[in-house]
Design goal:
- The protein has 479 residues and is of the alpha+beta class.
- It contains ten helices and 22 strands.
- It folds into two domains: 3-218, OB fold (Dihydrolipoamide Acetyltransferase, E2P), CATH 2.40.50.100; 258-478, Chloramphenicol acetyltransferase-like domain (Chloramphenicol Acetyltransferase), CATH 3.30.559.10.
- Helix content is 23%, strand content 23%.
- Strands 12, 15, 18, 19, 20, 21 and 22 form a seven-stranded mixed β-sheet that branches. It has a five-stranded antiparallel β-sheet with strand order 3-6-8-1-11, with no helix packed on it.
- β4 (36-41) and β5 form a beta hairpin.
- α7 packs across α9.
């Protein structure tokens, strides 16, 4: 009997833990290659973990609600297909981390190495779709070919240099888009291929990454230690709170997306000296223009997409607001301005507020921005947004008008320099050319990092966007 254990992978190039939401299999179930086996919630999104091999589930190394650590055992599967060895197994080694696995097989064996030496045996560990890279471990029987991703049988290969990739999900992203991973130039240490390298090679295609995972082969271990304890409750339901004396309805440690949101908000308030400016805007002409576009084309960009187009144009005129400030090791402050805009937008989901971002938003027209907003909002609410979808923005828009409120001094999406808020559109009495009329009005607010610019720059940007919304035909003619 052969039991293989694979570890929870780094699901986002640096994330160290994930909350196990639910198992999709149970001990004793048959599983196939790439079959989803669990859902986990990282600090970025909810993702499914696929099984890297087929067999019968032996051990689930955790339970729902538990925080699982990267590079710790996740699931063990009895792959079967081989008779048990008649010689006692040596004590099994702890499953290796992904980076240890990635290095396995990158060294070709020496030509003068003889049969029973350690060098000839190789590592015995196989990454998804890999051979060991050194001679196969010698046994008293013929080994069956290993199963590669997709169920195909991988032939025993000659020793060769393995392509080093930071994460199996990056390798799978390339494969699903028919990209030869060997053709990608890695920008990481010693040529390590990063997710950004694959995305760049895909020429900006919008692709959600799928999860894969490093695998290791160990002897059966029915009682592996759990990755971490379930978040402890401060007080059980119904018990009295020591501070207020009131019964406790619920109490638990923040984790996953909620923990990330809390930390981000605290960091923003702590690190950024922000100020806020606001203005009421007559958007009557903007709404009429949108209606005419819809009549002519059968579809029209959303109001937020039109405002976003004006905002992106405004950032090109006031680039200080499309920037960030970083604190270096020696305490110095570095101000970085960007060419181009990655436009983030706040999206409310069942797991909390997340900020998907439209990359290279400055290259898109209002219709294209509207389509991207709709697509990214959908994948975010379904918990399928990739780490790349939820990071890397340089400026954020928050449409809190959908909650039927007029205004809000939004917290800046750290480490950005500003966030633009859009309030609800309501009819108000408005003076036009000396006469009182009923107009459609909304409030714009801009919270900005006072270190990157003074109030004049922030007011200039906000006034530009407001004027464009008031007279959209004129503004669009100059974009």
């Amino acid at each position: 009997m052969t039991v293989k254990t694979f570890l929870l992978p780094d699901l986002g190039e640096g994330l160290t833990e994930a909350e196990l939401v639910r198992w999709m299999v149970a001990a004793g179930d048959n599983v196939a290659v790439d079959q989803p086996i669990a859902e986990v919630e990282t600090a970025k999104s909810l993702v499914e973990i696929p099984c890297p091999f087929e067999g019968v589930v032996s051990t689930l190394h955790g339970e729902a609600g538990q925080m699982m650590l990267v590079d710790e055992p996740f699931i063990s599967v009895n792959t079967g297909g081989e008779e048990a060895s008649t010689t006692p197994e040596a004590p099994s080694e702890r499953a290796q981390s992904y980076r240890e696995e990635e290095l396995a097989g990158t060294q070709a064996p020496s030509e003068d190495t003889e049969g029973d030496s350690e060098a000839d045996e190789g590592s015995g560990n196989v990454l998804i779709g890999y051979g060991t890279g050194s001679a196969q471990r010698k046994t008293s029987r013929r080994r069956k070919p290993r199963t590669a991703v997709g169920g195909a049988r991988a032939a025993v290969q000659e020793p060769s240099e393995a392509v080093r990739v930071i994460n199996p999900l990056v390798r799978k992203l390339a494969r699903e888009n028919s990209l030869d991973i060997n053709s990608v130039k890695g920008s990481g240490p010693q040529g390590l291929i990063l997710r950004s390298d694959v995305e760049a090679a895909l020429a900006g295609s919008n692709t959600d990454t799928s999860m894969s995972a490093p695998v290791t082969e160990t002897a059966a271990q029915s009682e592996a230690p759990a990755a971490s304890a379930r978040p402890e409750q401060v007080a059980a339901m119904g018990e009295a709170d020591s501070r207020t004396g009131l019964p406790v309805a619920s109490s638990q440690v923040l984790s996953g997306v909620r923990k990330t949101i809390a930390n981000a908000m605290s960091t923003s308030r702590r690190e950024i000296p922000e100020a806020t400016v606001w203005v009421d805007v007559d958007v009557t002409k903007l709404l009429k223009l949108r209606s005419k576009i819809k009549e002519a084309d059968g579809r029209a960009p959303s109001v937020m997409a039109l405002i976003s187009r004006f905002a992106v144009a405004g950032l090109q005129r006031f680039p200080e607001l499309n920037s960030r400030i970083d604190t270096e090791a020696n305490g110095a402050l570095r101000h970085t301005l960007f060419e181009g805009v990655n436009l983030g937008f706040a999206a409310q989901t069942d797991r909390g507020l997340v900020v998907p971002n439209v990359r290279d938003a400055h290259k898109l027209n209002a219709q294209e921005l509207s389509a991207e907003f709709a697509r990214l909002a959908t994948v975010a609410r379904e918990g399928k947004a990739s780490v790349a979808d939820l990071s890397g923005s340089t400026f954020t828009i928050n449409n809190y008008g959908v909650f039927n409120v007029d205004g809000s001094a939004a917290i800046i999406n750290y480490p950005e320099a500003a966030i633009l808020g859009i309030g609800r559109i309501i009819e108000k009495p408005w003076v036009v050319n000396g006469r009182l009329k009923v107009r459609s009005v909304c409030e714009l607010t801009l919270s900005f990092d006072h270190r990157v610019c003074d109030g004049g720059t922030a007011a200039g940007f906000l006034r530009y966007v407001a004027d464009a919304m008031t007279d959209p035909k004129r503004a669009l003619a100059t974009l």
